Automatic annotation (TrEMBL):
Belongs to the LipB family. Its EC number is 2.3.1.181. GO terms for molecular function: lipoyl(octanoyl) transferase activity. GO terms for biological process: protein lipoylation. This is lipoyl(octanoyl) transferase.
Length: 219
């Protein structure tokens, strides 16, 4: 499998809210990033094996889960991480006229027009040069639960969403965006993610929509 060339990119919309605690057992100090008692958690908590700290995943967050054989692309994890971030930056710029960038020493993608708000988290795991996990982009996500954690262990920074910035007029390049409902914002973001991913990684893609019912039936 490691010698075959393939790319699988699954984009889904979160329909439930939960928190992820990354690297549990290896980072005992991670509990300092929680503002609640684990015995009385306000959300379901899932423990994962990828890097990072505690992260909130909420409804209407777009998640791109990428499985790529880097052995047939480029065997460079730094390049891969930069490329994933570049996908998000291009989506925000080309579709919403939102200026975004990376911040030295910090993870994720940040908008930098009105302040450093984190719009996307990026986290990967690699085995035999096969990648999994990927990125999560806040589109119309309710971010109020963020108050319960210090997201990704980064203090004194905010978390934002595309919807908030569009409503505030940050994405003023297209006047029609101000009147779009949540479903429309998610749809155009989803489409843009596919297009920008194919451009950044220089790939052609075949799109297929799979409902949650179909996914469960295949298990």
């Amino acid at each position: 499998m490691a010698t075959e060339g393939f790319v699988i990119s699954l984009i889904c919309v979160r329909s439930k809210s939960f928190m992820k605690w990354h690297g549990l057992g290896k980072r005992k100090f991670a509990v300092e990033n929680l503002k609640f008692d684990m015995k009385n958690a306000p959300f379901n908590i899932h423990r994962t094996k990828r890097g990072g700290e505690v992260t909130y995943h909420g409804i209407a967050q777009l998640v791109m889960y990428t499985i790529i054989n880097l052995g047939t692309h480029k065997m460079d994890l730094h390049w891969y991480l930069r490329s994933l971030k570049e996908v998000v930056i291009h989506v925000l710029s080309s579709t919403f006229s939102i200026q975004a960038s990376t911040v030295e020493g910090l993870t994720g993608v940040w908008q930098c027009i009105t302040g450093n708000e984190k719009l996307a988290v990026v986290g990967i795991r690699v085995s035999s040069w096969i990648t999994y996990h990927g990125l999560a982009l806040n589109v119309t996500t309710d971010l109020s639960p963020i108050k319960w954690i210090i997201p990704c262990g980064i203090r004194d920074h905010q978390v934002g969403s595309i919807k908030e910035l569009v409503r505030e007029g940050v994405g003023h390049g297209r006047a029609d965006l101000h009147h779009l409902n949540d479903a429309s914002l998610i749809h155009i973001t989803h489409k843009s993610l596919l297009e920008e991913f194919s451009q950044v990684f220089q790939l052609e893609y075949n799109y297929k929509s799979i409902s949650s019912t179909m996914m469960y039936e295949r298990k």
